[in-house]
Specification:
The complex is a heterodimer of chains A (356) and B (259). With 356 residues, chain A is α/β, with parallel strands linked by helices. Chain A contains 13 helices and 15 strands. Chain B is an alpha/beta fold. The relative contact order of chain B is 0.14. Classes of the chains: A alpha/beta (356), B alpha/beta (259).
Chain lengths: 356, 259
């Protein structure tokens, strides 16, 4: 059993980054995720593992520092919250185009604009449908506990390097700020081998020079590059779908929720069961790739879905696409930093599906 | 003496560096980029550091620098090269990292990244090509466009009351404690090429010292954008650009040497 600690979600990510053998963190402070860079600064990761830590002058600089480090095969990461992630979209799009692996953490807060520092899930569409310009996808993991905040860091790096693609941990202010017990994995070594087929660490005499670019003015060649990217995303859909099902086997209705909303829904389904209502919970863990097949399978034998999010209804679009016209899909969301209670969600469910 | 005698090794007077590829340059005939590329690659070759060098290509005319420079390269978003170079150098402090940027890239959209990389004293080399115009997009006003100078967005000349003043980025960053070697050069005559190459060499040698950032501005022409012949452009550059952007070292060994 690993070391057990009581930690904030943000601290767990930072500690996990050091332990996962992350080579470099570049970031800019923003609420509600500044604990990540503060924790790292206190830990002096350059002394613990040799990991680079640098506070950038902006989120734009931070993501481009990640670009540079990631382009040399190093495990590089950044973290921010919604407005900062918007600033990073240019760099993220370039990294997707140049196929540079990295980890981006978004501890989402309410928007639009400067919005609020309170938690929200309003960046689902930005995270899962591209976010910046051009046709691309990120691998998106949605932790719903402090434990997963830690565990998803090495997972995200593994996936990012497996597909040479940026990966994102999409969390929110609830998971980032709350404290829970977390079992920390053992220290992993930092990488010493770099894939010479693509890294820009200096042209060795035994290989051609490597170029990382997202630019190509030849339409036919550039279409082939886009097809290649799309093929990667198809493989992610085939191999990387992750989700959790709670009480779904005998369920007549399903709540669909991720991250902090899923934590609240866990309690709602328990309350429902106490009342004899057969309610289950499907929690997507990967938001891209989305567990569409599992939703479709459940749609074969349940009477309806209630999708719950801390936004105006974003993931519900993916749920509806997967369900089709088989059964009714309803949505309930709170915005602006408001968080629904378990009873509130159950009441909404009853109102929409069982006539109150 | 026949041709075979002439091409003998001992008769060699000039050889293209192996660090320039055989790709045909995408620059206009008469443009200074080609020479700037060559001296940069010659310095890296002569120092024997090609295997440990990573270059950053910008957005602008020199976006395709990686097509011509036979070293590992990253092409990055507009203006962000100093941040990207920072990311590489911090992870690989023993490597040589350079950026190659134009005036729009470095002195307009990338002002923040430029100033902060200089101010942190990153041990990288920035090569800054200043031709006072946006070449690739068709000759629009650059941050370094001279007062009164015509461009496609200042067709009646740059009116500094409306469009601001040309920015002397090189003087500006020379006063930051993080820069160690700062120089302004040109590549339009054999003499200026020799001087510029010496400055680039000093810039790369500075990286070994770990004492801060080295920065070489090359004032260059854009005969297409300026709508002149190459010869006219070089003459115009001497008469108009050099008085405002005077050539020579500005900071050497961490000390300001020219005011």
């Amino acid at each position: 059993m690993g070391e057990i600690r009581l930690m904030k979600g943000n601290e767990a990510i930072a500690e996990a980054a050091i332990r996962a053998g992350c080579d470099a963190y570049f970031g800019y402070p923003i609420t509600p995720q500044s604990e990540i860079i503060e924790y790292l600064a206190r830990q002096e990761p350059q002394k613990r593992t040799g990991m680079v830590l640098l506070q950038a002058e902006s989120e734009i600089a931070a993501i481009n520092m990640v670009y540079g480090a990631g382009g040399t095969g190093k495990k590089a990461m950044t973290s921010s919250s919604s407005p900062g992630i918007s600033l990073m979209q240019e760099g993220i799009s370039y990294m997707a185009g140049s196929e540079i692996p990295c980890l981006i953490v978004n501890i989402v807060r309410g928007g639009p604009g400067l919005g609020t520092i309170q938690p929200s899930q309003a960046d689902y569409l930005q995270a899962t449908k591209g976010g910046g310009h051009g046709d691309y996808k990120l691998l998106v993991l949605a932790p719903s506990s402090v434990q997963e905040m830690a565990d998803f860091v090495p997972l995200a790096f593994d996936l990012a390097f497996k597909y040479r693609n940026p990966a994102m941990i999409l969390s929110d202010g609830v998971i980032g700020q709350m404290m829970e017990k977390v079992e920390l994995f053992e220290q992993m070594p930092r990488s010493t081998e770099f894939d010479q087929s693509w890294v820009t660490t200096g042209k060795r005499h035994d290989r051609e020079r490597n170029i990382l670019t997202s630019l190509d003015l030849d339409p036919a060649r550039f279409e082939r590059h886009n097809h290649h990217l799309q093929e990667k995303y198809r493989k992610m859909k085939e191999n990387e779908v992750r989700y959790e099902k709670i009480d779904c086997d005998d369920a007549e209705y399903i709540l669909v929720a991720y991250g902090s909303a899923a934590r609240i829904c866990q309690k709602s389904i328990r309350l429902a069961r106490e009342e004899g209502i057969k309610l289950g919970l499907l929690r997507p863990v990967t938001l891209f790739p989305f567990p569409s097949d599992e939703v479709a399978k459940l749609a074969e034998h349940v009477k309806g879905f209630l999708d719950v999010e801390l936004n105006a209804g974003q993931m519900v679009e993916d749920v509806k696409l997967a369900v089709g016209k088989k059964v009714n899909v309803e949505f309930y969301g709170r915005m602006g930093g408001m968080i629904p209670t378990p009873v509130e969600i159950l009441d909404v469910f009853k109102e929409k599906f069982t006539g109150g | 003496m026949d041709v075979q005698d002439i091409i003998k090794e001992e008769n060699l007077v000039f050889k293209k560096t192996r660090l320039m590829t055989d790709n045909i340059l995408s620059y206009c005939p008469g443009c200074g980029h080609g020479v700037a590329h060559r001296i940069l690659m010659e310095v890296i070759d002569e120092m024997g550091i090609a295997e440990d060098t990573i270059g950053i290509a910008p957005v602008g005319c020199s976006v395709f620098a990686y097509e011509f420079m036979n070293v590992d390269m990253q092409q990055v978003p507009h203006g962000r090269a100093p941040a990207t170079a920072t990311g590489i150098k911090r992870c690989w402090p023993e490597k040589y990292v350079f950026t190659y940027q134009g005036d729009g890239d470095l002195a307009a959209i990338g002002t923040s990244e430029t100033i902060h990389a200089c101010n942190r004293g990153e041990n990288i080399t920035i090569i800054f090509i200043n031709n006072g115009i946006y070449g690739m997009t068709g000759g629009q006003m650059a941050p370094t466009t001279l007062a009164g100078m015509k461009s496609s967005t200042t067709p009646y000349g740059r009116d500094t009351r409306l469009m601001g003043n040309p920015i002397k980025m090189t003087e500006l960053i020379a006063y930051l404690p993080g820069t160690y070697y700062v120089s302004r050069q040109a590549v339009h005559t054999p003499l200026s090429v020799r001087k510029a190459k010496k400055a680039v060499r000093k810039a790369f040698e500075t990286q070994k010292l770990n004492k801060g950032l080295s920065f070489v501005e090359i004032v260059s022409n854009c005969n297409s954008g300026w709508k002149m012949t190459p010869v006219e452009a070089n003459k115009w550059m001497e008469q108009n650009m050099f008085p405002f952007y005077p050539l020579g070292d500005i900071k050497v060994d961490g000390e300001i040497v020219s005011k």
